[in-house]
Please model this.
Amino acid sequence: MRRSVRDAIVGFTVIGGIIGFASTALWLRGVRLGASHWSLTARFNEAAGLAERSPVTYRGILVGSVRSIAVTSEAVVAELEIDKGDLLLPLPVTATVASGSLLGGDAQVSLVSRGTPLAKDAPLPRAANCRPEQQLCDGSTVQGREAASLSTVTETLQELLAQAQNERVIPHAADSLEQIDATARQFQVLTVQLQDELAKAAPVIRNLEAATANAVAATAHVNSIASSLDNPQTLSELKQTAANAAQLTATIDAVGGDVAKLTGDPEFMRGVRNLTIGLGELFGEIYPAQTAK
Model:
């Protein structure tokens, strides 16, 4: 009886040890028994520092780890295991390989979602009705990119310096500065010439000002005449003067017509001539002495 109990205890102890060892091995491999995990694939052009079991974060929170990494001639393919089964990531989503700091350190994968937040009742990534056109689902693939680091910044600066050297940016910049200086000198000369022209044009400007003043005075005079013409009394006097002038002209025309008729009558002119001769003879008889002298 006692031997059976001892055998049972030993057996259970061995089984517990085996289970503990297996659990530890699975945990070291990143396997979580009973966890609601799901996976996705990230493709990177560059993944410097990334390794298996590197952390995967979302908004700075650890949500999983890198399960495996495969290097091909086209890209670096990383299998990511997400431990949070209720993590909803709306598309588009990118995976960024970033170091712990700008100076370097252990690499990690940061998931970045720029889509509209999903509803709380949206299907989970492992659900059968998960919508891959709207959210990340189990087995989805995301595009990866490398975040800026000190090495990438240095490499970019080196490329810029090499490009500047190849394109002779500095000599071109010096030439541009010389052209700008020459243009400034030309502008200064033009400014002096413009000042001289303005000095020469000063008398013309004064004459124009005087002519403008005269025009203003003439305009005021015309306005005064116009205001006088607007006076009803002045208009009445002008109308009366015009009527009198018309009447005088008609009278002169009538007298002139009568004179023309009289001078055109032969009998009238003969009578006038006889009257003139008779008056002459009469004056001769009245003043004979004076006529004889």
